[in-house]
TrEMBL record:
The keyword Flavoprotein applies. It comes from the Bacteria. Its EC number is 1.8.5.-. Residues 3-110 form the Beta-lactamase hydrolase-like protein phosphatase-like domain. GO terms for biological process: sulfide oxidation, using sulfide:quinone oxidoreductase. It comes from Salipiger abyssi. SUPFAM superfamilies: FAD/NAD(P)-binding domain. CDD domains: PTP-bact. Residues 150-255 form the FAD/NAD(P)-binding domain. It is an enzyme of class 1 (oxidoreductase). The keyword Transferase does not apply. This is Sulfide:quinone oxidoreductase.
Length: 557
């Protein structure tokens, strides 16, 4: 027999027999629910036989038969009531376990998020895609789906989403495009490092979403609950359904603050900050200015993360301020990196190491932040060095800049679009989905092995727009992505190491060396970051003007 655990309260299973009761009872279960009608198959014993055997082993049993493929709303209500009334944990079964899982999924729809339900079912080996609309609708069968239909639907109103919608609209102005995003505000996230360094004001990194939606693009201000790629449909929170001919998926990453024990409770106080949040970046600068002596920790979680250089950018700008203020000798800078290298592309490492030396920073590799005690100002790290026994170390701090663990959003990870690791599964050259040829993805949420940066999205948006336009015209993909990403590493106020690279760490500089040598700190790269890139972002990239990003067309051969 099989134990397919949904959660601590419920386990489901394919058909069981009376001989299984001893094992079920020994595993700690206290009740059994049968969701298979008697006489459905020759392989099953009657519920009366199962019930008698269950009682011999101290188990309660309840009969809630459901015809295969015909789970009614009332059946789910009965199942939920049984879970509340029966002593737990509960063991439920049918022919394969699917009906029992479906009943549980619908019964929990009012108390759990759709993504949580789908993930629990998926982990137990069951796909609930067939009832996702009912789950989104609170466990009830929708009576009116309120379908809307568009030529192209774009999921996500961040840098990638608005840019690709604008680029596509510029190519094919007559397209009916809908952009789905519930947010009121759009942020220029690359600017938050500069806010944390006292260079930008936070207000300059935010604009209203409505002011940025490209002209002629329909903005649907709602979150996505689930995808139905087989039906060319996106299900929204509240169970509205949006149909599409082509879909572009780019909702960005989930910052998983809760994965570090105690972090959520102490963010923004007790000396704990992060440039990965708009409201916290000013606190970074406040802490840096106020520190005259003590220990400063800067953390970096396991990859992938967006803007892999951001954790050390915060360290460099802080170190530069303390250097200029003359207090650097009294400050112990510790860089706590879950990975094993300072930067993934070796060509830029020598320049960075010079600044690590200048600021007297200690590099601690294979140190992953797992817990924070804010009031006590203590941080706990799991240390997993190669060929060394894992250990845990605790460090006291005066201030700590945290880069949170990051994953794809829950509704992406549980969707049919995701690969085994939870990222949207695309061809790394065309950015077209590997299984659904009318779906594309770009930005941080797809699984191409490139750096997750705004500069990457700036390059990807025209490529996806070009390829979607080609597909609409019946042609093969016309543009290929080379993995380009850029990370302007702010090593001091006034100088930047401009890392630009593609797949495999190949250097892809945008300028001749005599203009900007990316492997060295330059004033020109700083001016680019401080004065040129922000207006390019707001006035070009988000408006479909592909400055330095227009894709080269390639032949089908």
């Amino acid at each position: 027999m099989e134990f397919r655990k949904i959660n601590d309260d419920l386990t489901v299973s394919p058909q069981i027999a009376t001989d299984d009761m001893a094992e079920i009872a020994a595993a700690g279960y206290r009740s059994i629910i049968c969701n298979r009608p008697d006489g459905e198959g020759s392989d099953q014993q009657s519920f009366e036989e199962i019930e008698a055997a269950a009682r011999q082993h101290g188990l309660e049993a309840r009969y809630l038969p459901v015809v295969s493929g015909k789970v009614q709303d009332g059946d789910a209500e009965d199942f939920g009531r049984a879970l509340r009334e029966l002593p737990g944990p509960v063991f439920a079964y049918c022919r394969t376990g699917t009906r029992s899982t479906t009943l549980w999924s619908l019964a929990q729809a009012k108390t759990m998020s759709t993504a949580e339900i789908l993930m629990a079912a998926k982990n137990a080996g069951y796909d609930m895609a067939g009832v996702v609309r009912r789950i989104v609708n609170g466990g009830k069968t929708p009576t009116d789906t309120g379908d809307a239909s568009f030529d192209v639907v774009v999921v996500g109103g961040g840098a990638a989403g608005i840019a690709v919608a604008a680029s596509l609209k510029a190519r094919l102005p007559s397209l009916e495009i809908a952009l789905l995003d519930p947010a009121d505000v759009h942020y220029y996230q690359p600017g938050w490092t500069m806010v944390g360094g006292g260079i930008f004001e936070p207000e300059t990194t935010a604009k209203t979403m409505g002011s940025l939606i490209p002209k002629g693009v329909h903005w649907i201000k709602s979150a996505v609950a689930a995808f139905e790629p087989g039906n060319n449909a996106v299900v929204l929170d509240g169970c509205r359904v949006v149909k599409y001919d082509r879909l572009i998926v780019c909702p960005g990453l989930k910052l998983d603050w809760g994965k570090v024990d105690g972090l959520v409770e102490t963010l923004g106080k007790n000396g704990v900050t992060s440039n990965y949040r708009y409201d916290l970046a000013p606190y970074t600068w406040e802490l840096v200015k106020g520190l005259k002596t003590g220990r400063a920790l800067f953390t970096q979680p396991p990859m992938p993360i967006k803007c892999a250089g951001a954790p050390q950018k915060a360290m460099y700008l802080s170190g530069d301020h303390w250097f200029r203020e003359g207090v650097l000798p009294d400050i112990d800078i510790q860089f706590m990196n879950a990975g094993g290298v300072l930067f993934g592309v070796k060509d830029y490492v020598p320049a960075l190491e010079q600044y690590v030396k200048k600021y007297g920073a200690t590099l601690n590799f294979f140190h992953n932040l797992v817990a924070v005690d804010g009031p006590a100002k203590k941080a706990t790290f799991a240390v997993n060095k190669p060929e060394t026994e894992p250990e845990t170390v605790e460090l006291e701090f005066d201030i700590m800049h945290v880069c949170p663990p990051q994953t794809a959003p829950d509704f992406i990870r549980v969707s049919p679009l995701a690969d085994a690791a939870g990222w949207v599964d695309v061809d790394q050259n065309t950015l077209r989905h590997k299984s659904y040829d009318n779906i594309w993805s770009l930005g941080d949420v797809m699984n191409a092995p490139n750096a997750k940066t705004a500069a990457a999205a700036r390059m990807q948006a025209p490529i996806v727009a070009e390829n979607v336009a080609a597909d609409i015209e019946g042609a093969s993909p016309r543009a290929m992505y080379n993995g380009y990403g850029s990370c302007p590493l702010t090593v001091e106020r006034g100088k930047i190491v401009l890392a630009e690279f593609g797949y495999g760490g190949t250097l892809l500089p945008s300028f001749p060396k005599w203009v900007i040598d990316g492997t060295k700190p330059t004033r020109a790269a700083w001016l680019l970051k401080e004065q040129i890139l922000p207006p390019i972002y707001w006035k070009a990239m988000l408006r479909g003007k592909e400055w330095m990003a227009k894709p080269e067309k390639v032949s089908a051969s």
